[in-house]
Amino acid sequence: MPRFTSPNGGDDVSSPHLYVANCGPAVGFSHETIASVFAIYGEVEGVYAADESGTRVIVSYHDKTSSQAAMKALNRHPCSSLGGHTLHIQYSVQSLGKVNNTASVPVSTSASDLDILGLHLMHDFVTPQEEQVKDQIFGELLAAVDDRPWHHLAKRRVQHYGYEFCYDIRNVNTNQYLGELPSFISPVLQRIRSFQALGRAADMSLDQLTVNEYPPGVGLSPHVDTHSAFDELIFSLSLAGPCIMEFRKYTTGVWQGNSTDLENQIPGKNLNLVKKAIYLPPRSLLSISGEARYAWHHYIPHHKVDQVYDSLIRRSARRVSFTLRKVRPALADVNSLSSVIRKNSHI
Q1: HSE-CB of 233 using CA atoms within 13 angstroms
Q2: For a Cys staple, 296 with which of 43, 247, 310, 345, CB 3.0–4.6 Å?
């Protein structure tokens, strides 16, 4: 967690960070709700617990202009969006202590900066209003998965739809077809198909969904999604908390398209490695295909605090990702044929 303290010049010194009292989970307001209220005045980089009380938070903006506007509008005034609570606000500054971050790997906020073919990131794929309001379609995504059973892995929870992915064999279990994708994901599929920038996505019939829940600080080991199980194009929608995704390319390997099974090529410790990293904010959609899909391992560092440019961003909330893929036709055909055989065997 980033550390904050009072500015050296006292209350007259402004900063992008605000210390906000009478506001927090202990008085009924989640960090996500607080962020949505303060976002009216500018881009909120993060909301963090100021202490253990649950009644005081730090709201970090991208710039001082936004924090100044929020200070003027909200300090010592009842806030109707937060139940009429009167907020007591002071400026705060970030104290750079010892944190785990990706300082050795510069982090970009745009996929174009990484210069990896086939990698695209769409910010605000789901708008803040849609995510926060419960009766909105996308706001119901988190509630929908929370109403369904989770499968517990070592450090995270998962749900599978369409086809189950077996982590022990790193492949799709074609003997356990789980049926069509749930209705709650339909609006996401429709929105994906509406984006012309995604090319042939409109022609794809995505039929496998994995929902991952990452607690704060939990990441994902470097890997390439199984070639034999899934088609080329993969989508990942991030909700709730942010994270950094790192891409790693081993310079001894050469990408040869789908035929090169990089997931079975375990690099030695001394091989040269190229690393690039991108920040995945909530409500963003990442698409991976081509070189990004087959030539680069992707990885989520196990950090509680990520460094993005000069800002430290705490993973203060769980992150829930919705990964959509297309099972390779051969596997799907085998599953369909097996279903027919099983059905006919009971006639």
Answers
A1: 15
A2: 247
Q: Could you tell me which residues come within 8 angstroms of residue 223 by beta carbon, excluding any fewer than 6 positions away?
A: 263, 297, 298, 299
d(CA 40, CA 58): 16
Q: C-alpha angle with apex 319: 318 to 322, nearest 5 degrees?
A: 140
Answering whether pTM is above 0.70, one says: no
Q: Is 107-337 CATH 2.60.120.590?
A: yes
**Distance of CA 226 to CAs 158, 166, 167, 180, 261, Å?**
17, 11, 10, 21, 8
Q: How far is CA 81 from CA 20, 40, 218, in A?
A: 15, 11, 32
The residue written with tokens 């789901």 in the block is 126
Per residue in 292-345, pLDDT tens? 999 999 999 988 888 888 788 888 789 999 999 999 876 555 444 344 334 443
The residues pairing with 93 across neighbouring beta strands, listed in sequence order, are: 5
CATH of 3-95, one of 3.90.226.10, 3.40.50.970, 3.40.50.1100, 3.30.70.330: 3.30.70.330
Q: How many residues in total does the chain contain? A: 347
Backbone angles phi, psi at 293, to 5 degrees: -75, -45
